[in-house]
Design brief:
Elements: H1 2-12, H2 25-28, H3 30-33, H4 41-47, E1 51-52, H5 55-61, E2 70-73, E3 77-84, E4 98-105, H6 113-123, E5 134-140, E6 143-149, H7 156-161, H8 172-189
Parallel strand pairs: 1-5
Antiparallel strand pairs: 2-3, 3-4, 4-6, 5-6
Length: 196
């Protein structure tokens, strides 16, 4: 992940253009291109402040992954709406407690365990008001799930591009506010503080 970003920085950076001192750009941007020490799965899972959920807890929280609980679908798999108790993080009745979004890995999809673990590794250590919060995960038998805070207004993409009649178009003033807040989140991700 970090290497791809640093390669793109090398190619697009104004520091690279016309540099005649012979030094590699990567030595000047060492914080962004330093290879990360590979960590084992156990090291990653133990180093985060994430909650570990059982598959049964998430099954109950999402009402058995019912089709009417589906929020969306992507390359990783389906995302389901669920509820957990905000103090104990145990499953709660629908409509009570903390609303969550549960990403369930599609075992026949292109993404797999490695991508699931990468999300935990990176998103599990980040905290910023402009980034969706990863609350926990489930690693049980063949099941791989991620538990996120629920974003009640739905997909930004749907609001920007009005994917259905349900979504009203955003005013240009609101679009500018969204762009500014997204830029703050991106700036954080690219800062040395985030270590992504």
């Amino acid at each position: 992940m970090g290497s791809c970003i640093s390669v793109r920085i090398k190619a697009e950076s104004p520091l690279h253009a016309g540099a005649s001192d012979g030094r590699d750009l990567s030595s000047r941007l060492s914080y962004s291109s330093a290879p990360l020490t590979p960590r084992s799965q156990n090291e990653i899972l133990e180093s985060t402040n994430l909650n570990s959920f059982s598959f049964n807890e998430l099954r109950v929280a999402t009402r058995n992954f019912r089709p009417d609980s589906v929020l969306g679908e992507g390359g990783f798999g389906c995302v389901f709406k669920g509820w957990i108790d905000e103090h104990t993080f145990k499953s709660a009745r629908p409509g009570t407690g903390l609303v969550i979004a549960v990403k369930r890995l599609n075992q026949e999809g292109f993404q797999g365990h490695k991508e699931w673990l990468a999300e935990i590794n990176y998103l599990g250590s980040l905290s910023h008001p402009n980034l969706v919060k990863l609350i926990g995960y489930c690693l049980e038998d063949e099941h791989r799930l991620l538990v996120y805070e629920f974003m009640p207004r739905g997909s930004l993409e749907n609001h920007l591009f009005r994917r259905s009649t349900y979504f009203q178009p955003l005013s240009w003033n609101l679009r500018m506010k969204v762009a500014l807040e997204a830029a703050k989140g991106l700036a954080y991700l690219h800062s040395p503080e985030a270590k992504v």
